[in-house]
Structures are given as structure tokens and as C-alpha cells.
Amino acid sequence: MDNHRRGQILVTGVDDPVYNAIVNVLSPLGFDIHRAPWDDYLRDHVQITPFDVVVTSYSISAGGMEKFFKAIRSPGSACHHSGVILITPERHLEVAKVHLGHGANRIISDRGVSSQLQVAVSELLGVAPRLSVTTNARIKIYVEGKPVQSFCQTQNLSSTGVLIRGFSHYPQGSKIDFEISLPTDTAPI
């Protein structure tokens, strides 16, 4: 892999052994790693300083997580579109999943940092190959937890998502259920 700088990573809320594992995985790949304490200034920091990925611990208070996600995902935040990876003790993996799609993009066990972090960061920063597919789709988008049904067209598909064209705009990362009708199939998928 080349040695030029690949991106800005903010690490916060993790203990020293986890931080050292993060540095050992990402530094050789050319990432600039910044560490900031989990304190009252962190929310301001992520709103004015852009980072490509933010890695944080789930072991912080639930109320603190909600405030953090509100700050980082607010429309004017410099990190609004940043990838967010939660590092959590293995015993909290299932509980932490409530934050997937609601602030966090990936969740990794603190024991899995060495084996899973590089893949998670690559997935968040990489662009998946696209396939141009235009077909009709019926979607159910969850807006503030409530389902809204719509009819639209796909623009392209990738392993990480689908670009759709419809009559309304929804926030990037919105959860959807969908049925796509392909010309060669009688039943939608």
C-alpha cells in the first residue's frame, strides 16, 4: 500500500490498549490519527473540524452517545457525513446495535480491533463498484421511526446501497425496505 496520507481519523473515548491497537492497524496504512478526550468540547470539535472517520467507545453513557450523535450528524457539522465506528466490549455488541443507522455506521468488539478495523475503515472510505440499473422500485422509508411508502426508480446498485430517484428527498442513510421489479422476473425481489 502507498505511504501517502489517506484520511483523517479521530479517536475518542477508548482506553490506551484499544487506542494502541487502532494506531497499530491504521498508521502503517497512512492515516492521520488524532486523539481527543471524551469531554464537553468534543461535540464542538466534531462540528467544526472535519474527519473522515470517527472511532469512539460505546462504553460511555447512553445520554452522552445521543448528544454526541446529535452533534456529529447535525446538518452543519463538519463531520455530518463522516463514518462513525463504535468500539464496544463484546458483551455489549447486541445492545450497541441500536446505534447502527442512528449515528454509527459500524460496531466492532474491542477484541476485534486488530482484525476488523481496517476492513471497516476501508468500507466507509471506499466507493463500492456501481452497476447502472434503471428499474421500478416500491420502497418503504422509515422517517422518524414511521414508515412512508413511495414508488420510485433505481439509478444504480452497489454492494453497499442503491441510488434511487423519487419525488421526495430523505436523509442519506435512511433505513428502507424495498421491492425491485426486474424485467426478467415475474415476482419482485
Characterization of this structure:
The chain is α/β, with parallel strands linked by helices. It has 2 domains: 7-125, Response regulator (Rossmann fold, 3-Layer(aba) Sandwich); 130-180, no CATH class. Helix content is 24%, strand content 32%. The strands form 2 sheets. Strands 2-1-3-4-5 form a 5-stranded parallel beta sheet, with helices on one face. Strands 6, 7, 8, 9 and 10 form a 5-stranded antiparallel beta sheet that branches. The termini are far apart. Residues 1-5 have low confidence and may be disordered.
What topology does this entry show?
Layout: E1 7-12, H1 16-26, E2 31-36, H2 42-48, E3 53-57, H3 62-72, E4 83-88, H4 93-96, E5 106-109, H5 113-125, E6 130-132, E7 136-143, E8 146-158, E9 161-165, E10 176-180
Parallel strand pairs: 1-2, 1-3, 3-4, 4-5
Antiparallel strand pairs: 6-8, 7-8, 7-10, 8-9
Helix pairs in contact: 1-5, 2-3
